[in-house]
Every structure is written in C-alpha cells, then in structure tokens.
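debug: dumping io for the single-chain case to check the tokenizer round-trip. Nothing else runs in this session.
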Amino acid sequence: MKSQVYNQAKYYELAFSFVDSKKQADLFEKIIKKYSQISVSSVLDLACGTALQLREMAKRGYKSIALDANSKMIGYLKSEFKKKGLNVETIKADINNFKIKQKIDFVYIMMGSIIYVKDNNSFLSHLDSVADSLNSGGLYLIENMAINWDDSSLFKPQRWTMKKGRVKVKTTYQITPKNALKQIVTQLLKLEVVDNGEMMEFIDKDSLKIVFPEELKLLVDKNHKFELLGFFERNNMKLLKRNSPDNVVLLRRK
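debug: decoded output
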C-alpha cells in the first residue's frame, strides 16, 4: 500500500490514540457472547493499522493475528509487540484477497477501513477471503461503514489534535463526493506533525467506493457464506433505525 500517512506508523498511532481499546475489547466480548455460535480463542484484525484493539485482545489471552498491506506498519507492529512481550502474528497482505494458515474464531475490521475494498467484485473476493479464514459459526465485525450518503455531515471535515511529550499531531479527515453515480468518494487523510520543533506534513488522498446497506445485503447473499445479523449502533449494539457513521455490521459464518 503506497501511503505517506501509513508509512508514519508512530505518528499515525499518536493521531488515533484516543481509541479506548479496553472498551472496544469489552464490546467484542459482549458481541461474541451474544452472537457467536462457537467459543472464541483466536482473533484476526484486518487492515489493522497500529492494532490497538488487537494488543488488548492479546493481553486477554486470545491468539491474535494482525493483517495489513503496509510493510512499514507491519514492521512497526512487530517492534511494538516485541517491546510489550505480546505474542501476535503479523501478516502483510491485501484485504481484497488474502489467505491465512489456520482458521480463526473472530474477525474484525475497524475505523471504516472496509472502504479500502475497492469495488463490488473485490468485495466478493474479500468476503471469500474472510470466509476461508473463519470457523463456521464465527463472527465478522465491520465497524463504521460509510452508509450515510444522505447525511451532509458525512462530508464535513473532522479535525483533532493529539500530543505526547514533545510530539504533536493534528489530523484532518474528510470525505467528499466524486462520482455519485458510481458511489465514488475522495478520502483525505492529513497529518500535520510537530516533533521536537520539526514540522512535517503527510497527506493521503484516495478515490474509494462506498457500499450502501441494501447493496451489502445483496453482496452477502451472492457470496452465500455468511448470515447478515444486522446493522447496529456501535456503542450499545441496538439495531440501527437510521443511517449513522457510528455503526457496526455483523456477519456470521454459515
């Protein structure tokens, strides 16, 4: 994956360090208890980035696998896992088409990263890859699908700043419509970094496709390997009554 931002794993981690990995791991375990048809001892984090949630799952004793397409991110993770004494396997692979050696009990993809599945054919390939990696009865959790096309707030820029010691990272994230007919958007991710007085800027700009809810249902049906359990509110797992950027989509392997 060619990227200015994801090549800067240390700054990327600081930018998203507001993530409450313990709270999210608690939610995973509640979802598993309620919806999984199998006991869970192993987890796979797709498009893992700095894998904050997976670190917490590893601490809780789960066999943990991190998968990402960016070699510098993978290298950073290996170093961080070693420092913290965590036994986590890393795999460099594209989420559109990947294989793992042994099947897993629970798979997830966080922070809207599902948008990097580039088109519907790739989405079917992605579902095949997840299905081949997941034990029957196990769950695939997708966080924050960009399903709220009709909400203008989707296209407003989001900005926040995180600090650690003498390092400060200001992040800008924005989605803008590019081709409504083809459901293509432009995604901007910018990090403005001040590190011990040195100023740097890293920018990624990608053309990506949004998958709408009814479209996702059809893709899941066509794939035949999953049961769609529903679209849920992210924080309390109540079924969605209207579009929301804070959502969880839950699939279960047949």
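debug: round-trip ok. The longest strand covers residues 167-179.
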